[in-house]
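Quick one: structure tokens for this chain, please?
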Amino acid sequence: MKEKLAKLIDVKSIVTIVLTVIFAILSCSGVISEMNFMDIFKLIIIFYFGTQVGKKETDGGGKGD
């Protein structure tokens, strides 16, 4: 359990979560449009999961093992 929590609390995860919360608040308050929120959110999520998959493959945890 501690290992999973330690992996969750790394810089990329914190940045992803904080940016998601900030853009959700801005979208709900009407500062940015819904379409802008979706575009930015997609980029953040794609970057986050893309780096996670790349990290697993370089660590030897990919599907090809």
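Residues 11-51 form one domain.
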